[in-house]
């Protein structure tokens, strides 16, 4: 699992045979995976095709080769799930964004939600090596 036992994610960029991205979410000991031909949606309300592909082993989180590189990585959190959709936030290297994966009969649609995380309220948690500041005596 990712840091602090949070489930990890990775976004792989494939350059061959055809340029596309793979979104992989850690769940139940595997990486559930979707090919996203045009990459993650960049603006709220934007949709992208997502094609479910076979699960990958967890050792694929950092995998790179001459045709595949890690475009982003981090952890993810689920907010809601039904049989037809899953709403989640990706917490990557450059920030956080909320998405919905929506089943469309035969396939999936990846949508960047209108409601996005409030990054101003996201505080960096103390790491074990950090010390809390001392409170001066009254």
Summarize the structure.
The protein has 138 residues and is mostly beta strands. It is built from no helices and 8 strands.
Tell me what you see in this structure.
There is one protein chain. The chain is mostly beta strands and 138 residues long. The protein has one domain. The chain has strands at 8-14, 20-27, 30-36, 47-56, 68-81, 85-92, 95-103, 108-112. Residues 120-138 have low confidence and may be disordered.
Strand and helix layout:
Layout: E1 8-14, E2 20-27, E3 30-36, E4 47-56, E5 68-81, E6 85-92, E7 95-103, E8 108-112
Antiparallel strand pairs: 1-2, 1-5, 2-3, 3-4, 4-8, 5-6, 6-7, 7-8
Number of domains: 1
Strand order of the largest sheet: 1-2-3-4-8-7-6-5
- Range of helix content: under 10%
End-to-end distance? 43 Å
Q: What does the main sheet amount to?
A: 8 strands, antiparallel, barrel
Number of strands: 8
Averaged pLDDT: 86
